[in-house]
Amino acid sequence: MATTRASIICYYDLISPYTYMGVKLFSRFRKQWPSVDVTFTPILLGGVMNAVKNRPLFEFPSKRNHMIADLDRISAVTGVPFKFPENFPVNTVLPMRVLTALQLHEAAEKYEQCIDKLFDEYFVHGRNISQTDVIHAALMPLFNSDANKVDSYLQLATQPEIKQIFKENTDKAVARGVFGAPTFIVKKAGEPDDKEYLFFGSDRFEMIAAFLGLPYPGLLSRDRNSAKL
């Protein structure tokens, strides 16, 4: 069966600074791609890395130093705010399960606002997003200070159903060939539904745009009116 619309699945984990940067840049121009369905799927990056026997950059001092300098340069060039957190890495299982619950029960716009907010908490403000109180405080403004609603999502994150969905997301990512984050699974309109193309990294948007025949405003684009993720 042929795919009627192009689609992009972004596999992400809040622990990844390059994913933070990629999501911020993606949010600037994705509104120019109305013919493309976009989905942000939460995964446990550590689970992916273990499954494929990959090693994170921060384990190697020279790579870690380069990563921080590189991200600072990207921030300076693009205007995307960034500060490498002093407490890195942290355990993101809880916030990622919260986001899994949010994706299941909230509209896409609200869910994506929560992704954006939690990314900011960590990579702009340096707060420890593994902590329940940090997650709670971050999400409260997005739910009109409804503490009960935020608490309900924190509770859902501990339930077997959400844990299983999160695990299945991670397992499916590995089955699709994902080995790090951000990873984008792209489908072209008119091609068989099972035909997928994998793009890895926060610097592949120009290639994705060219692949799908879409406009791409460039790395330096700073459209202040772009919809936030």
Automatic annotation (TrEMBL):
Gene3D superfamilies: Glutaredoxin (3.40.30.10)
All residue ranges annotated as the DSBA-like thioredoxin domain in the record: 8-212
Alphabetized InterPro entries for the sequence: DSBA-like_thioredoxin_dom, GST_Kappa/NadH, HCCAis_GSTk, Thioredoxin-like_sf
Signal is among the record's keywords: no
Catalytic activity: RX + glutathione = an S-substituted glutathione + a halide anion + H(+)
GO cellular component terms given for this protein: mitochondrion; peroxisome
Gene Ontology molecular-function annotations: glutathione peroxidase activity; glutathione transferase activity
Pfam families: DSBA (PF01323)
Annotated GO biological process: glutathione metabolic process
Its EC number(s): 2.5.1.18
Alphabetic keyword roster: Transferase
Annotated active site: S16
Protein family (similarity comment): Belongs to the GST superfamily. Kappa family.
PANTHER family, per database record: GLUTATHIONE S-TRANSFERASE KAPPA, GLUTATHIONE S-TRANSFERASE KAPPA 1
Protein name: Glutathione S-transferase kappa
Organism from which the protein derives: Lobosporangium transversale
